[in-house]
């Protein structure tokens, strides 16, 4: 992608000066282009964890960490969570604009008609142990999609990229729900085309053949909002994984499976499961000070799960919406006195008044309250991260499509600061 050069940064190194072009984004920090630095100065830049590195151009999502702002294609997340619905947000993330009524209807119909899996894929689930973590199943089955849908694996064909995108968005709820059903020994429930996306997922998770199941509209709305809040988030770890996998030309199903694998980690998407387990371990409000002390103790690896964020240094706008939703859903379910919610609210209040958390700018993130809602809806903690993966699939796909369609994209290949042994000859075992 070409950029207008706003100014030039000068790097002086070993008595030489190097000009580095500076580009301006539509919003956010300027960037210094160092892509030619190694060729010019025979040095690498050094940024483990990419705390100061823009790895790509993107027009999809923008986060202002200082303001606590999250925009999907320019629209603020709180407005989308309140006024839109997940499939409309999927359209926005994929195509860049909110659809008119006809385009939205067509998109919803296209997704709806791809929700079933090839019937033979059911065998993959049965190959897992019943006590397999649902993320292991989701990761395996998403990757296995590439063994069935050969007509949508050619990444150079825009039509195939589009079909693969629709298939992934449509089938990820079925795969996630079936991973849950398999883990509890219940029969798979097929998607129903007369249900909306969130209701369909809840039906596939909680319906049983033995009796009718009616989706509670309150839960369906809350589920849909949780999907919207998790849909995309700039170049987070799992999205960067998808981009790096895609940069090699791997098929879209393999790339999304790589994203699922990365999201599983407790520092990333696994935090919602870890946060609820932590809140349950704390148990009562009087035990909060003990855990706050542990979180501050450098010799203790314990961290407050669901707290802190690489980018948000004010508050995570998703956590704000999630907290409101938790109050609403639990009240409607008649469990507003849920002890875990009380511990969460008191933990947040104490932490936000504690100098350690204030100084380190640690606030609740998206994972702090989501688990409380999912728990109240009847999901086990093991299903929290699969639900995050379900929602993030559209973000991964939108970012993958953006990268693949950029004619200047090339395989990602970072370098390193080598700290190992320098050249040495082999020594035969008898001489060691
Ligand atoms: C997600 O990137 C994304 O956008 C991710 C995500 C998305 O939508 O894709 O938003 C989803 O992953 C949210 C984050 C979920 N993870 C957690 O809730 C796990 C707990 N949080 C931490 O592990 C941590 O805050 C991270 C991983 C989220 C952020 O880590 P950073 O940016 O690398 O920050 P850091 O580890 O350098 O922390 C800065 C300081 C450190 O202290 P010092 O070394 O400066 O003394 O703050 C401390 C940390 O020890 N700290 C915490 C803490 N998080 C950071 N101390 C206690 N509890 C915590 N939760």
The largest sheet is: 3 strands, antiparallel
- Molecular shape: globular
| Binned strand content | 5-15%
What Rg do the Cα atoms give?
23 Å
- On the 0 to 100 scale, the average pLDDT is 95
Number of strands: 6
Largest sheet strand order: 1-2-3
Observed structural traits:
three-stranded antiparallel sheet; mainly alpha; binds s-citryldethia Coenzyme A; 18 helices; 432 residues
Summarize this entry quickly.
The protein is built from 18 helices and six strands. The protein is mainly alpha-helical and 432 residues long. Strands 1-2-3 form a three-stranded antiparallel beta sheet. Strands 4-5-6 form a three-stranded antiparallel beta sheet.
Report on the structure:
The protein is mainly alpha-helical. The protein is built from 18 helices and six strands. It has helices spanning 37-41, 77-83, 86-95, 101-112, 122-126, 134-144, 158-183, 197-206, 217-229, 237-247, 252-263, 271-282, 288-296, 317-332, 339-351, 355-359, 366-377, 384-404, and strands at 5-13, 16-23, 31-32, 61-64, 69-72, 75-76. It has a three-stranded antiparallel sheet. It has a three-stranded antiparallel sheet with strand order 4-5-6. The longest helix has 26 residues, at 158-183. It is globular, with a radius of gyration of 23 Å. The site of s-citryldethia Coenzyme A has 20 residues, from helix 17.
